[in-house]
Amino acid sequence: MSIKDLEHKRFFYKDHKFPAPAKPKIDKTVREKVYNKFDGRCAYCGCKILFHQMHIDHIHPQSMSHFYDAEPSVKKEYGLRGDNVNHIDNLFPACRSCNNYKATFSIDVLRKELEEQPRKLRVQSIIKLCERFGIIEIKEKPIKFYFETIGEHDER
Question: Please, which of 2, 61, 125, 147 could form a disulfide with 43 given CB 3.0 to 4.6 Å?
Answer without folding.
Answer: 147
